[in-house]
Every structure is written in C-alpha cells, then in structure tokens.
Amino acid sequence: MNTAIDQAVQVRLLATSLGSHAVPAVLHYQRADPLAVRMSFPPEISLDGAAVDWAFARELLAEGLRMPAGRGDVRVRPSGPERTVMEFHADEGIAMVQLRTEDVRRFLARSYEAVPAGREQEYLGVERGLAELFGTA
C-alpha cells in the first residue's frame, strides 16, 4: 500500500524589493520515503519558468515549528504563534516563504498517522519489497 499525503497550502513569498505575494504550494509525504517531505511550487514563481520541488527531512519541518532549524539548503523557523518561515537556499539566491503554522501541524499529524515518529526505519524499502514479492515491480 503506497500511502501518499498531499496537502495544498497557501504560502506568502517574501521578497524584499517587491513586497510579498500569495503563491500556491503543495506539501508531499510518502510512506515509501518516510524520512522526507517535499514542497512543490508552481512554475510561475521560478526564475526559469520550471516547477520547483524541494526535499527535506520531516524532522526538520517539525523542529522548525518550535525553534529555528536547519543549516543547509532548507531552514525553518517560527514567526510568531501563527506563522512559520521557510528559507530555500540555492546558487541563484534565497527564497523565503511564510505559511500558516496550523497548516504545517495538520500536514505533519497526517504524516505521523501514516508513519509514526521514530519508526521510519521500519518503512524504508517496504513498498519496493512488496512490489517485488508480488511481481508488480
């Protein structure tokens, strides 16, 4: 069983020169890849007109709701009681988005129903193994 969770979220793209504007995005989680979360952005917000997908640790997203988290390409931090800021660092620059903390909490709760925290290792490769066992790989 391939459990996938997609949750549409409205993010506010923070830009210093242009102010901020609302942008649709989608948070993705798959039980087959239990350690990772993905966030997808539409092509119209990228510099080259292509859809943008970022992958990062589910734990990073959860930690970033409580305190600043991350040192690499993706960083997450609270911004008051109702907002969370995510920073995406690339060679081209930094994109910052702000989203409702409640949306992130709801998404994480759904992901923890699919794969409880601390049990991710039990789900690594299970989907692929079942597919091979039943000849559907």
Relevant terms:
3 helices; alpha+beta; 137 residues
Describe this structure in words.
This protein has 137 residues and is of the alpha+beta class. 21% of the residues lie in helices and 42% in strands. It contains three helices and seven strands, in the order ββββαβββαα. It has helices spanning 58-64, 101-114, 126-133; strands spanning 4-15, 19-30, 36-41, 52-57, 74-78, 83-90, 93-100. It has a seven-stranded antiparallel sheet, with helices on both faces. It starts with a strand and ends with a helix. The relative contact order is 0.18.
Number of strands: 7
Radius of gyration: 16 Å
Describe the global form: globular
Largest sheet: 7 strands, antiparallel
Helical fraction equals: 10-25%
Order of secondary-structure elements: EEEEHEEEHH
Query: Which stretches are low in confidence, meaning pLDDT under 50 for 5 or more residues running?
Result: none
Number of helices: 3
Biggest sheet: strands side by side, in what order? 4-3-2-1-7-6-5
Supply the helix-strand structural class: alpha+beta
Portion of residues in beta strands equals: 35-45%
- Regarding quaternary structure, what we see is single chain
**What is the distance, rounded to the nearest whole angstrom, between the alpha carbons of the first and last residues?**
13 Å
Can you give the mean pLDDT?
A: 86
